[in-house]
Amino acid sequence: MDKKQSRMKRALKLRSKIKKLSAVRLSIHKTAQHIYAQVISADGATTLASASTTQSDIKTLLKGTGNMIAAAEVGKFIAQKAIAAGVSEVAFDRSGFKYHGRVKALADAAREAGLKF
Hints:
Layout (H helix, E strand, L loop, with lengths): L2 H19 L3 E6 L4 E6 L6 E6 L3 H4 L8 H17 L6 E3 L8 H11 L5
Parallel strand pairs: 1-4
Antiparallel strand pairs: 1-2, 2-3
Helix pairs in contact: 3-4
């Protein structure tokens, strides 16, 4: 089993638990250059809020987009947008990525900005 298959297996396990809870989820995806975050409704049909390092309003605040500082900014923005959309509590879907580095920075920044998970 290669690295991607292991990540996808972890993601499936995590998403099945979140689906049983029927909770709104904060889903993230990361690449080497960017990090993306979405708040998705409990039924999985609609995206309530989104933020990423590719957006111009976030990109102008940053020197680079593939670091922990950028992930923290995305975490702040996604929390602000989610709270504006009426969501204050989410389940954190890390998409099989290990809770370390940029993933942890995004989660901590979202918590500090007011999201509960």
